[in-house]
Amino acid sequence: MADVNRGNRPLSPHLSIYRPQLTSMTSILTRITGNAILVAALLIVWWFLAAATSPEYYAVANGVLTSWFGDLVLTLSLWGLWYHTLAGIRHLIWDNALALDIPTAEKLGWACIGGSVLLTVLTIAVI
To answer: Which of 45, 123, 108 is nearest to 78 (CA)?
Structure first.
């Protein structure tokens, strides 16, 4: 039967008092970087197909990927690749029921963020 006093009960505060946690934000970031890696892979496939098609079409694709915008996209994609890799390692650790307490989980989250930035800088420096 329907609850007739539904209007008299207080509403849940929902998002107005929710404080995002590092583990939830890194989980969302893992999903975002996974999709970004797919977009970067499509750009690289486009570049290869352009190289196989004609010199003129390759010049267009190469011009886009070597422009400042292309460099920005590929650099952020590199960071996303490193972050996604480190987050995957973190999930493998969690799958083995290790480091599940909140302080250690937050340390692993910061390690993923800091490690991905460091590995991105090192990769760019080497290349």
So the answer is: 123
Q: What is the pLDDT of residues 24-62, one digit of tens each?
A: 999 999 999 999 999 999 999 999 999 999 999 999 999
CA 113 to CA 62: how far, in whole Å? Answer: 30
Q: Are 85 and 123 in contact (CB under 8 A)?
A: no
Q: How far is CA 89 from the centre of its chain?
A: 14
**What Å distances lie between residue 97 and 5, 84, 93, 94, CA to CA?**
44, 20, 7, 5
Q: Are the beta carbons of 94 and 30 closer than 8 angstroms? A: no
Q: 64, 51 in Cβ contact below 8 A?
A: no
Q: Measured between alpha carbons, how far is 66 from 78 in angstroms, rounded to an integer? A: 15
How many Cα atoms occupy the beta-carbon half-sphere of 92 within 13 Å? 6
Block residue for tokens 């886009």: 64
Alpha helices in the chain, H assignment, sequence order: 22-53, 55-65, 68-95, 102-126
- The size of the chain, in residues, is 127
Which domains does the chain show, CATH number per domain? 21-35+67-126 (1.20.1300.10)
